[in-house]
Amino acid sequence: MEHSLSNHSKREFIIGEMNQLDKLAVVIACSAIGLLAADYISATDHLFAKTAVQSGLAQAKLGQLALSRGSSEKVRGFGQRLVNDYAAIDRLKSTATKAGILLPASLSAKDQLLINRLSGLSGAAFDKAYAESMVKNRETAVMLFQNEAAAGSNPDLKSLASNILPSLQEQLLLARDAAGSVNAAAK
Fold it and tell me: For 105-154, where are the alpha helices, taking DSSP H only?
């Protein structure tokens, strides 16, 4: 008779034979698994948070650099925008820390090299190098935040990435505008 039961019937038979205490244990175990899954922080979330925080640290320094070294009004304006938008990185730090992600406190080697290179320039040479690097920098930031917004597993980080993304997209447009302006002035 056991061979003639379908898989569905076998499951119903097994569940029917379980006593209430066994059923309660299964419910508790499934709930615990669900809680663990809710607290899960994926490698994508870790990489996003760490990269975004380092990028944010660089953003603030690069903005300050544009304010002190830039000669173009658009470059200085863009630098001010980066400095003003740094508050979003503070929100990201808070959210990532709550999620248990250990965050870097220093710039990436790549960002430090860029800052060092740009620090040696001034005037039109600074403006041109800065604007071009900011277009690439903001394109990378937009892609990073788009990826987290679409594929992140932590709902708080995913939501924050979605909320910050429009500002980054605006920054990218401003960076492109500044680069176009600087390049047109150099001709």
Answer: 109-119, 123-151
Q: How far is CA 9 from the centre of its chain?
A: 48
The candidate with the shortest Cα–Cα distance to 144, out of 55, 61, 80, is: 55
Instruction: Indicate if the pLDDT at residue 137 is higher than 90.
Output: yes
Number of domains in the chain: 2
Residues 115 and 158: their CA atoms lie apart, in Å, by 29
Alpha carbons 2 and 6: distance in angstroms, whole number: 9
Task: Mark whether 161 and 85 lie in a shared domain.
Answer: yes
CATH of the domain at 114: 1.20.1260.10
Tell me the residue range of the domain where 8 lies: 2-37
**Alpha-carbon separation of residue 185 from 31, 71, 72, 115, 180 (angstroms):** 63, 12, 9, 23, 9
**Per-residue model confidence as pLDDT tens digits over 12-39:** 555 555 555 554 455 454 444 444 444 5
**Rounded distance, CA 174 to CA 187, Å?**
20
Is residue 86 located within the same domain as residue 13? no
Contact in structure between 42 and 152 (CB atoms under 8 Å): yes
Closest by CA to 131, choosing from 142, 118, 140, 120, is 118
**31 and 55 share one domain:** no
